[in-house]
């Protein structure tokens, strides 16, 4: 195994259970600032306030950290850190520093004036999948009872929404992994559809390496032979946007080659016949023509998964490659159908899961930031859910707004007739992470008021009227829910710089200024206790999880409905949380991408992440070691395609779609299909590939089609 996957050797002292120390000095046990693996780490602050990171043993990362984790503390004392509120009366003028009182008064006055003139829904909120559970919960409550607006959604819409929609309709629950991650190491075969964990969350690879070390199979479907695919026993180089056809073909072979688990299908599922009627049309040769994956590779995939199912087990995982499509929900459903046909969900060391991306992508989608949701994964249009949550909040259920639009639709409506005139942004750099970036910038510019809470001057903050400086991971207490559904503790290791506040404080202060009748507090543990009550009885039931318990047990899996409940590390062993206790096959049909190649735009573009950067890059681009390692976007191009376009390694290339263009540096590689280019999305300005991507939305999840659109390549120069 490469050292980067394992991190440095872990001293015995930091393998011990978490210790918490006084903020500002000593060593504090916490978790990483970034992705959903939430690797365990220690933060040690010296007398001078310098903070160093150490690895800590935990079931998910087993002492490993990636380069982002090792450098996570470097942003704490960064000169680019925002430490005072910033205001401007006119966007043509520079920001000026302001006191917190003045800034909060300006925001509250703008909210009041906007709502008085244009109605409650004229103020909108966008949250983020990196917010703690407490902040995500408080933000949803603030929108519904302080602003009383329906217009709230979050950037997880761009991340996990297709996986969530498909999991809900098949299993009746949306928990990314329905088993602890170490279970993966015990299985016999793993298929990953559209995920590159070797770069996005390197310590995850330890679990896959364990599968390989025992002679198991690792199959990766990806247009690129990524670092993960490079370790696989089988790589399926699927054409971008055709994962659904591939999944239908795999189900076809599973049945046709006699691998379907008929007893499981009969006893534990519904809907197989309808799903099979569609899959029956996807014979292997047709699938090969559409996807580019050979018949032999399709057959080997099914055989290896079936052998695993008969032996130690088999697991099918999806990630953004399969999900960030205008048919992402159906693609995930097709892969769930395959898992059900092989009899995997609920079996030991087997199952189906979706790899969550953002740090609190799981918890962030459970507690009310979503447009159609109340805490506990309750539906906002369910009268019983409204009554329960309104009771906890001390308001009339009739006063709660209904469902609002999804994130991209909300952005499209900003500043339009009848659309929101003011926007509050928390924990997301949507100017870089949203598709069709020019259009999003236009809509943000059309607002009367844009308020951004952030730790640095992100591209979105730079467009704002008010910027409020808030705490980072090492400066705050709270909980996160990792990719396994395990609730873990984020602990404060150092005091924030003077002038920086938590978003819980910001929301509490604003609620008071808006004369909100519901109670708000800036104390995170009190917020969590209220979250527990609000989630009680919901799908994502946290009622039995307390901070003390999380501290004592090192994490608790939801659902956990009472203090004496052990938590739920493994789901589905005894049934599915559906009306009849059965999982549902969903009949789905392949369709082409929303935009296909043509003479003017003859190349497929797919996007994703690189090891040294995280999401929009607002934080990681400001960490010197990461910026040095990955200073600019590299456009991966096959030499054959480069030759046809007059491009050489190191050239600057403009990637042009019908919506816009972005510039990156050519990296020639034979690890990508000759009809496809790849560009990472961590940079802003003219390097922002999301100026190019297609906002075509999945009809169910409202996920934009980040993973495939048509482009042409133009050489810009050699430097
Ligand atoms: Fe672990 Fe993700 Fe942090 Fe890397 S970025 S150390 S994989 S939590």
From TrEMBL:
Keywords: 4Fe-4S, Iron, Iron-sulfur, Metal-binding, Molybdenum, Oxidoreductase. One of its GO terms (cellular component) is membrane. Residues 25-80 form the 4Fe-4S Mo/W bis-MGD-type domain. One of its GO terms (biological process) is respiratory electron transport chain. InterPro entries: Asp_de-COase-like_dom_sf, MoPterin_dinucl-bd_dom, Mopterin_OxRdtase, Mopterin_OxRdtase_4Fe-4S_dom, Prok_molybdopt-oxidoreductase. PROSITE patterns: 4FE4S_MOW_BIS_MGD. It comes from the Bacteria. The keyword Cytoplasm does not apply. The keyword Nucleotide-binding does not apply. One of its GO terms (molecular function) is NADH dehydrogenase activity. Its cofactor is Mo-bis(molybdopterin guanine dinucleotide); [4Fe-4S] cluster. It holds the Pfam family Molybdop_Fe4S4. This is Assimilatory nitrate reductase catalytic subunit. SMART domains: Molybdop_Fe4S4.
């Amino acid at each position: 195994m490469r050292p980067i996957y394992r991190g440095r050797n872990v001293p015995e002292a930091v393998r011990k259970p978490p210790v918490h120390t006084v903020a500002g000095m000593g060593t504090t046990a916490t978790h990483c600032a970034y992705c959903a693996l939430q690797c365990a780490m220690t933060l040690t602050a010296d007398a001078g306030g310098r903070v160093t990171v150490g690895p800590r043993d935990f079931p998910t990362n087993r002492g490993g950290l990636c380069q982002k984790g090792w450098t996570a503390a470097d942003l704490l004392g960064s000169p680019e850190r925002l430490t005072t509120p910033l205001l401007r009366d006119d966007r043509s003028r520079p920001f000026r520093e302001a006191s917190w009182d003045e800034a909060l008064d300006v925001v509250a006055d703008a909210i009041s004036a906007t709502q008085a003139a244009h109605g409650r829904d004229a103020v909108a909120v966008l949250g983020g999948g990196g917010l703690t559970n407490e902040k995500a919960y408080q933000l949803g409550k603030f929108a519904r009872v302080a602003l009383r607006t329906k217009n709230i959604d979050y950037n997880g819409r761009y991340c996990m929404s297709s996986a969530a929609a498909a999991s809900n309709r098949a299993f009746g629950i949306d928990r990314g992994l329905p088993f602890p991650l170490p279970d993966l190491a015990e299985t016999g075969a793993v298929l990953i559809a559209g995920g590159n964990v070797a770069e996005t969350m390197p310590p995850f690879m330890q679990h896959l390496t364990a599968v390989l070390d025992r002679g198991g199979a690792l199959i990766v479907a990806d247009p690129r032979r990524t670092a993960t695919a490079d370790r696989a026993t089988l790589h399926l180089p699927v054409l971008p946007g055709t994962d659904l056809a591939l999944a239908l073909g795999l189900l076809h072979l599973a049945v046709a080659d006699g691998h379907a688990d008929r007893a499981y299908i009969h006893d534990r599922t519904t809907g197989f016949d309808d799903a099979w009627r569609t899959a029956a049309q996807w014979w292997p040769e047709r699938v090969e023509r559409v996807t580019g994956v050979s018949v032999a590779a399709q057959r080997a995939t099914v055989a290896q998964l079936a052998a695993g199912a008969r032996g130690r087990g088999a697991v099918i995982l999806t990630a953004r490659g399969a999900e960030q499509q205008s048919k992402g929900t159906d693609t995930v459903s097709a892969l769930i159908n395959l898992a059900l046909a092989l009899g995997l969900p609920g079996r030991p060391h087997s199952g189906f899961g979706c790899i969550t991306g953002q740090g609190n992508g799981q918890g962030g989608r459970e507690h009310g930031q979503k447009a159609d949701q109340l805490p506990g994964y309750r539906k906002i249009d369910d009268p019983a859910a409204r009554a329960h949550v309104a009771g906890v909040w001390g308001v009339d259920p009739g006063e709660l707004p209904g469902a609002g639009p999804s994130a991209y639709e909300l952005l499209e409506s900003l500043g339009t007739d009848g659309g929101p005139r003011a926007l509050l942004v928390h924990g997301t750099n949507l100017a870089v992470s949203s598709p069709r970036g020019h259009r999003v910038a236009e809509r943000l510019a059309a607002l009367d008021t844009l308020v951004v809470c952030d730790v640095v001057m992100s591209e979105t903050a730079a467009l704002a009227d008010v910027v409020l400086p808030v705490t980072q991971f090492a400066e705050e207490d709270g909980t996160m829910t990792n990719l396994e559904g395990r609730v873990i503790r984020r602990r404060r290791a150092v005091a924030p710089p003077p002038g920086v506040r938590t978003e819980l404080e910001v929301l509490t202060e604003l609620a008071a200024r808006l004369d909100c009748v519901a109670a708000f507090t800036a104390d995170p543990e009190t917020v969590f206790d209220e979250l527990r009550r609000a989630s009680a009885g919901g799908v994502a039931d946290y009622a039995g999880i307390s901070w003390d318990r999380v501290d004592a047990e090192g994490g608790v899996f939801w659902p956990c409905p009472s203090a004496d409940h052990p938590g739920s590390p493994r789901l589905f062993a005894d049934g599915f949380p559906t009306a009849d206790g059965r999982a549902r096959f969903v009949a789905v049909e392949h369709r082409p991408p929303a935009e296909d190649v043509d003479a003017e735009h003859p190349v497929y573009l797919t996007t994703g992440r690189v090891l040294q950067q995280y999401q929009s890059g607002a934080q990681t681009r400001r960490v010197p070691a990461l910026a040095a390692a990955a200073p600019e976007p590299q456009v991966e191009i096959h030499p054959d395609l480069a030759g046809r376009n007059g491009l050489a390694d190191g050239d600057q290339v403009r990637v042009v779609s019908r919506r816009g263009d972005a510039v990156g540096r050519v990296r020639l590689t034979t690890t990508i299909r000759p009809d496809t280019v790849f560009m990472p999305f961590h940079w802003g300005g003219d390097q922002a590939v999301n100026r190019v991507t297609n906002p075509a939305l999945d009809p169910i999840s409202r996920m934009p089609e980040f993973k495939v659109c048509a482009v042409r390549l133009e050489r810009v120069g050699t430097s």
